[in-house]
Specification:
With 267 residues, this protein is α/β, with parallel strands linked by helices. It is built from eleven helices and eight strands. α1 (39-47) packs across α11 (249-261) and α4 runs antiparallel to α5. It is globular and about 50 Å long.
Length: 267
């Protein structure tokens, strides 16, 4: 079900997707920023009696861009306001890629709102590989947005998955200048984020998920994150690519449910 809430920061209106009833789970998507990324995960969790909340982030899908500067800190504040708007006292917070950075920031700034963290394909701070990769992606985005979109498919999924899902390599819709600008500023935000000191200060139970063949965010960055976050658990798979919530959907959903079950008897 789609609903809307208005940011107290700049009056921007955001589109929210909610499903199910039970303990709250907040799903935070990555660079694309769309609630649609979580469609399969949301449905699986809702049927297992969880209250699932997703958001189209600033300037994405049904949400307005607003006037606030886009940074990881601001995006985390948007999700804090979302939880408050939904009347959620605490939520399991699941972040993927850039969404994992946002989740870390949310847990650091508002730990009282976070029951647990699940951080997938993410990092505490970028390395030279990521900086160079995203500089190239930003340049390609400026030159040819449709090519940028197709290149992202080949980066994000294993080759065998693409062979079986050829529709993913479609031409894609035409990008307007506003959409290009929105993605450019999101790339800048993720590259400017360095939460290594914050990660070391986190005291929230944390599960880190990784695919060892991730070509966007190298597996080594998830291993580094595990060393920084106190008592974090790392689960990794040999294959799955960057978008393993989709390519390993059944395994991914079962992993989330197993993790959440640890907290069923918490008060």
């Amino acid at each position: 079900m789609t609903s809307y809430f208005t940011s107290s920061v700049d009056g921007a209106t955001f589109a929210v997707e909610r499903a199910g009833e039970g303990p709250a789970v907040l799903l935070i998507s990555g660079l694309g920023g769309s609630a649609a990324f979580w469609k399969g995960v949301s449905a699986a969790l809702a049927t297992q009696h969880y209250h699932v909340i997703c958001l189209d982030q600033r300037g994405i899908g049904g949400s307005e861009r607003g006037t606030a500067n886009v940074s990881i800190a601001q995006l985390a504040e948007d999700f804090y306001q979302l939880l408050t708007h939904c009347g959620v006292e605490q939520a399991h917070v699941v972040g993927h890629s850039t969404g994992g950075c946002i989740a870390q920031q949310l847990a650091y700034a508002h730990p009282e709102k976070v029951r647990s963290l699940v951080l997938g394909a993410t990092w505490a701070g970028p390395n030279a590989y990521m900086q160079n990769l995203f500089a190239l992606r930003a340049q390609l985005l400026r030159l040819d947005p449709q090519c940028y979109e197709q290149q992202g498919v080949y980066l994000s999924y294993p080759a065998e998955w693409i062979w079986k899902h050829n529709a993913l390599v479609a031409t894609g819709k035409k990008w307007g200048p506003e959409q290009v600008q929105t993605v450019q500023e999101r790339i800048e935000a993720l590259l400017q984020f360095d939460g290594r000191r914050q990660a070391a200060a986190l005291s929230v139970p944390s599960l880190i998920l990784s695919a060892e063949d991730d070509a966007v965010v190298p597996h080594a960055l998830q291993k580094e994150l595990q060393t920084l976050v106190a008592d974090a658990t790392l689960t990794s798979w040999p294959t799955g690519g960057h978008f393993f919530p989709i390519t390993l959907s059944h395994i991914y959903n079962e992993t989330l449910l197993s993790w959440f079950s640890r907290f069923k008897h918490d008060k």
